[in-house]
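User: Can you help me understand a structure? I only have the sequence.
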Amino acid sequence: MRLAIDGGKPARNAPLPPNYPGAVMMGQEEAAGATEVILSKSPFRYYGPDVQNAVHRFEDTMSAGLGVPYALGVSSCTSALIVALKALGIGYGDKVIVPANTFLATAGAVVCSHAVPVFVDVDDSLNMNPLDLERVWDEDVKAIIAVPILGNPCDMDAIMAFARARGVPVIEDVAQSCGSSYKGRYAGTIGDIGVFSFQMNKIITSGEGGAVVTRDALLFERAVRYHDQGLFRDKERYGLESDEEANGFIGQNYRMSELAGSVLIEQWNKLEGINASTRRNHAAILSVLKASLPGFRSRKVVDEEGYLGSNLGMILPSAETAAAFIRALDAENIGTHLLYGGKPVYRQPQLYEQRTADKNNFPFDYRFRKPVSYKKQPCQAAEDLMARTVYLPVSPLLTSEDIEQITEGIVKVHRALVSEARQ
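Assistant: Let's start by predicting it. Here is the structure, written out as tokens:
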């Protein structure tokens, strides 16, 4: 069958739904919640003429949904990461292990917390490879950040075993994977502290926003204080006793607004439905591709039940084939992409060159016993796999006709560029 890029008929006549899972599900519920806050003239969570306690209610909803005692709404996932790192006491002179395949904000938050990231390689899941942790370990490492990429849970048993054996905490950066799970436990609730994103293209959204969750009362108090100028305004709500004179410290302002909280209450109520739809659509697409393409390869999944299916990761034979695959599918009106341009995060110039806004490129100026350089990073699997893993966003809005057209287009392009090339 002739490819559309070569003048053939496209598999679809229109682009796929936009890749904004939570936003495309917004409706009157979110509008009513935001209107209630606006009409109360009280968009700040802690005081106003008629505070609606929207952030409070969202935190309680999230806490109950995840089965953790403490949830804190914040202004973004980047701020959530910084809050989590500071709750753990991470700072100047510390290293933090970060996966090579993640968004810049994961490593950037480490730097903004005055620590230095060191990068661990990935495996075929495109997540952190637990077997590579020992390579980057030294006595200056004070935390590990695990990132389940695009709805795919990490191998948390192996990661937690490594961390516990060395006495370091684990942060779960669940920015892209809200609602994913590993062996029956929600991502974000397995490590010492978890962070979430509600930015525009996340599973649920308020445009911007984030959250910190934990089971540890002390970590929670430190997180609350750091996100609110060192204050802990509602200790009584949690039944926690804390002495301001003894426990207060300087913090930042990373507070969530009541407008964001009101939207997120309604978005959280839709989370299960969004994820059920993407799982169903992903399974339908993948089953056809596996049946039709004997050489088809998708990324490894360590827990099928916990996988969201929000993105289908297709591993191609080479970076050149992947680039041609994307171009050909685009002509079929099936939008796909390489994540982060197909490059490990340390290839971003500000990290690669260790540039910051501070004097002497602080905190990279710290003289570690084992110096940190990203110029000769041995994350070979990330360098290889990221450049040839093509992602298809799987919308909760896909119809059976959409799925049929998507699979037809991918099968056609794969046969032309991959299957026939192998013969």
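Now, to help you interpret it: The chain has 14 helices and twelve strands. The longest strand covers residues 141-146. Let me know which part you'd like to focus on.
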